[in-house]
Amino acid sequence: MRFDTYEPGDFYDELFIAKEQPRSEATLLIERINSLPPKELQRRQQVAQKALFKLGATFNVYGDNRGTERIFPFDVIPRIVSAEEWEVLEKGLKQRIYALNCFIADIYDAQKIIKDGVIPAELIASAKGFLQPCIGLKPPGGIWCHITGTDLVREKDGQWYVLEDNLRCPSGISYVLENRRVMKSSFPKLFETMAIRPVDDYPSHLLDTLLNLAPTNLTDPTVVVLTPGIYNSAYFEHSFLAQQMGVELVEGRDLVVADGYLQMRTTKGLQRVDAIYRRIDDDFIDPQVFRSDSMLGVPGLTEVYRNRRVAIANALGTGVADDKVIYAYVPQMIRYYLGEDAILQNVPTYLCWEEKQLNYVLANLDKLVVKCANESGGYGMLVGPHATPEKRQEFAQLIQANPRNYIAQPTLCLSRVPTILDDSFEGCHVDLRPYILYGKDIYVHPGGLTRVALKKGSLVVNSSQGGGSKDTWVLAS
Fold this sequence. Notes:
Layout: E1 16-18, E2 21-22, H1 27-34, H2 40-55, E3 58-60, E4 69-71, E5 74-81, H3 83-107, H4 112-115, H5 121-125, E6 147-154, E7 160-166, H6 173-186, H7 188-193, H8 202-211, E8 223-226, H9 235-245, E9 248-250, E10 255-258, E11 261-266, E12 269-272, E13 275-278, H10 282-285, H11 301-306, E14 311-313, H12 324-327, H13 330-338, E15 345-346, E16 350-351, H14 355-363, E17 368-372, E18 381-383, H15 389-401, E19 406-410, E20 416-421, E21 424-433, E22 435-438, E23 442-444, E24 449-453, E25 467-474
Parallel strand pairs: 5-25, 7-15, 8-9, 8-13, 13-14
Antiparallel strand pairs: 1-2, 3-4, 6-7, 6-22, 10-11, 11-12, 16-19, 17-18, 17-19, 20-21, 21-24, 22-23, 24-25
């Protein structure tokens, strides 16, 4: 396979400026692929996919009766981000996470942003992720959002936009690390000649972030990863990160509140737990405070947390910032808390709870993407131009029944990356999820998960909807 016949099309292509004109940062990659013998690239693609399968890089799809585990499709053509571009993204992400942390701390305390009329009180009160039991909580160091996965997209003009924020239990970093592992085997010479920033130190940065939460008087704090269990869609990642950090992977049944502390059951008796990386949603984490029918959490955990005898990442209540209606106000948050303009812009967003914007959305469903405020994974979404009239009518009724629960955005012309489909290269649409850790400082991991829509022409990149992933190469300056 060669790129001689590849057509970038009328899109922003991450590797090509025009036909047979690679971007400067991609030149070595394109030359290397073009120099491979016939069928060699397909062979490397197959080897890479088999390697990921052997590594166990799978995910679960809820409600899929064909089997609980699927391999996450992977494409060996990477996305490349220049050092100059990454510097801007890094600054913008740090700014955004700092402002989001200020916002969460504020709404669970003085609520100044509401009193000053920046965000309507009813939007916060009606947000599914705003949790009354979290009012007055004081997490260690005032940090609420320790681990964030922020989804970015690039438009036709090359401009980056923030598509959404993921603060509850953002997933996908394990695929970033495993993808890089197989890519180093697929193109070892390129990693020797190109200045590609490494990604394999993420677990050590994550562990440092979690240890930073523990009381300073502890010489050897105990950190655990709390998982809902093997049937969770991201269980591979939970076990992978625990193993990489050298900490215990536990379920709710492994933990108990005793003597005012959170304790872990071990073969030697109870052992105190000082910090939790939780991969369980708030609703299920403590049946005494949230959902009483939860079998996944730990009864009494919230009280121990409130008494600052255990730290939790991310803090309880951070899911309020995942609300796609709240997302629309992040630029205002940045101006309010930091006195700055946003470095990274939001995608233009219509709020259906406002009557004028609602009327516009209903009149233009064939042109817009409609999203449910609290869904993820590509669920609860309408891609208007690709939907049937019946589906658009169905969504119109849903929006009218609950306007607060929906936003709409223009259909984006997402950037593309050459991707192997059958025996040829096709330009497939991508997004990018960088991972940001907030400990002593805010750290943006170089790269992130590039998700790719593997169905020709599709804009939906989610794994549960048929998407796959690519390695993301951030070049050093």
